[in-house]
Amino acid sequence: MLSIEDAKNQEDLFQIKAAIMSKKLEGVGGRKGVTEILALSLDAHRHKDYQKSLKILEPLVEAIKDHPFVSSDAMDYVSISDEMECALHHNFFQKPSRQVKNISAVCPIEFVWRQYGLSALEEGDYDKARSAVLKAIQWNPVSAKYRLMLAMTHRDEGTLDNILEDILPAMKFVYKPGDLVCCFRLLRDYYLHKKMYKEFLYCSILRSRFTTSDGDLNDIFVDMVQFIKATKFDYDKLSNEDIFETCKRCGFEPGFNPEVLAVAQRCYEESFLAGDSAKAAYFARIMADLKTVQEKRDAVNLRQLFESHRNPVS
Q: Cα torsion at 217, 219, 225, 231 (round to 10°)?
């Protein structure tokens, strides 16, 4: 446990380093300039001009390369802009003997490397993409999205054997349905590559439980029909118990990590008791997202049933 004096010294040191970084960023317009550059790069990316997106980011990438935020035995520096991810980092990584300082308000370095890596990936420069995404993960180790980007880099360059080591850590932290669906889609690709057809089928089934996208559901249906025809799989023998056992054997959950749900629940309760309604609502939305499509439908049906009894039609 850090003493009060040690904590004060670390805070003073952080303020000095923050001032140094702010000075470095003056060349790109300061913190506001960083936001503007990221927005311009993202706009170019959306228009599929990936070279332009990378070029826009180059001055910012140069500005953050020689940053003063080097972690030590007493201090960890992170760049995490998402509130839920801050809570996950505190839960999974924070130690009593070390302070953690989040520099995202000074400069969202994780976003810079994320955007640079994403454009490099679309451009087909896999070495540059991998290097950038690994830097983003160093700054934000609980981002499932960044680890999925790393898995997609391996997939796109044809090294599917490597993606499992990216997907499994992502599933430890994932809390958005779209990202979980992406996890199962990449696992499907991996098991198809490995000719592990039962695991391939089960990942498709699990993917269907967390999406309402017609495109996703159609892809999943085609997957399942083709698989059953090709392997003569006895669909009647399929059971949740076997799916869960298969997931356990393969090292991942059949849905969201229960510890992530526990973090969201705790943060919701703390925010509610503190009277912070906005933060409580934020974590309540996350808790609602940590459900299967069927569970969400059941919850809506229960609310409708409750409302019908509370407000009976005369």
A: -130
d(CA 281, CA 88): 17
Provide block-wise average pLDDT over 10 residues at a time, the chain (314 residues): 60 91 94 96 96 96 92 91 96 88 96 97 96 97 97 92 93 96 94 90 90 82 77 74 94 95 96 96 94 69 45 47
pLDDT, tens digit (0-9, with 9 covering 90-100), for 171-218: 999 999 999 999 999 999 999 899 898 899 899 889 988 988 888 788
Residue 236 DSSP label = G
Cα–Cα dist 156/159, whole Å: 8
C-alpha closest to that of 18 among 69, 75, 79? 69
Q: What angle do CA 79, 84, 87 make, to 5 degrees?
A: 75
Domain presence at residue 93:
yes
Q: How far, rounded to the nearest angstrom, does the alpha carbon of residue 37 sit from its chain's CA centroid?
A: 23
Angle between helices 144-156 and 109-123 (to 10 degrees): 20
Q: How far apart are CA 252 and CA 273, in angstroms?
A: 33
Same domain, 7 and 134: yes
Which structural domain, as residue segments, surrounds residue 83? 1-142
Give how many domains the chain has, as a whole number: 2
**Type of residue found at 175:** Y
Exposed / middle / buried, residue 146 (Cβ in 10 Å: 0-12, 13-18, 19+): buried
As a whole number of angstroms, the distance between CA 254 and CA 256 comes to: 7
Burial of 120 (0-12, 13-18, 19+ CB in 10 A): buried
Structure tokens at 255: 């849905």
Q: How far apart are CA 43 and CA 49, in angstroms?
A: 9
Picking from 111, 142, 173, the residue at the C-terminal end of a domain is 142
